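User: Second chain of the day. Same drill as before.
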Amino acid sequence: KYRPWLREHIERNPDFIRPERYRNEVLAMLREPIGDLSISRPRSRVPWGIPLPWDEDHVTYVWFDALINYWSALVSRGEEQRYWPAVNHFIAKDILKPHGVFWPTMLKAAGIPVYQHLNVHGYWLQDDRKMSKSLGNVVGPLELQAKYGRDAFRYFLLRDMSFGLDAGFNEPAIAERINADLANDLGNLLNRTLGMLSKYRAGQAPAFGPLERADEALRDTFLALPDALTEHFEQLHFERGLEEVMAAVRAANKYIAEQQPWVLAKDPAHSGRLDTVLRTCLEALRCASVLLESVMPEKCRALRVQLGLPDAVASLDDARSWDGVPTGTVATAGEPLFPRIDVAALHDELAEGDATDAPLEHKDEVDISAFTALELRVALVTHVEPHPKADKLLVLTVSLGSETRTIVSGIRAHYAPEQLTGKKVVIVANLKPVKLRGVTSQGMVLSAEDPDGALSVVTVDRDPAAGAEVR
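Assistant: Same format as last time:
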């Protein structure tokens, strides 16, 4: 019913789903019949679910009640009129279908305006693999935040990932980014400027003298950044916006090297020129702190405090002017905002950690009765076919000797049907039957997962009869 409407809505609003590759993916889904969506699940299968008001034996399908929360949370506070017109969803690419197909359809059916944008991000990968608890390659973000500081860590996350694409993660990359951008470029500009200001002008901001071409060029570079940064961020090109700001910071460092204020300071006749150079550097630092505040709010406010400016939240419009440091303001250098990190020592530290295998995570202990309650049997796979309505499921027909069963298994990504046909596997035979996407499953095939996430079905090394009990 709603498929033509949703397809038309996406086609008429090219930036509704961003980046474009995910828009195309949803349109591809909508070219084929999707079928009806069941909004309930048996309570026997999902006892923790939210009960349906009209059927105590069923609970709400988790994606149905989870999506409703986006709207109901605002309605419960009377804030839907304030926030809903500007709503953007940010999701991982593996849940594209619920957010890109189910959710807008639900909103349309309920007469609620559709959200502004669906923004789909990729994964941070460890050794080219998705992070997961089962693989043991999960990174602790709070630990990294404590180690490197939340502002620097946030900067790395936005600077080193192109939104929508996967990105490789490793801890030395954090240290290298902090050293290159924040310690060497921004930190160096701050330290050099305040050092010279203290040495040559007792720490007080001088007035501008006549501007030369180099002064105007650096000024124009910074004053163009608020609009450029806004455009990049609105298009989710965070890394491009940050790189433009840091390119301007590097240009300011180059400006110092070219203008040579230490040479100007030796000749009283160049006093006015020295004032202009120092004031230009102060304005560059102030503007950089404003432009980077949305990513590093604490460090940027601390930077302005060293410039002698109030510790207050800045507006992006503050970066549109070149006279934000009042003449006579006293600047005082403080502790380095971004101390350099010893990358070699970090590599040694990580190598020591890798030398020790991580301990296994065990579940709670059970007594023998809990194990004997399971009925494990050998089953001969006689036929396998893809599930007609689920691209991750296979439908297996298995023989237990005196009876035949159908089992739905989520191993389609790991086995082709012909690889399973004729194989003897181990199944849980006394699970309650459950319907999976329209096909009733009468058991579970046991499998093992290796560190790479690949599944291997559990088999037997001799040739017991189909139906033999596993003890």
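The chain is about 45% helix and 15% strand.

User: Great, on to the next one.
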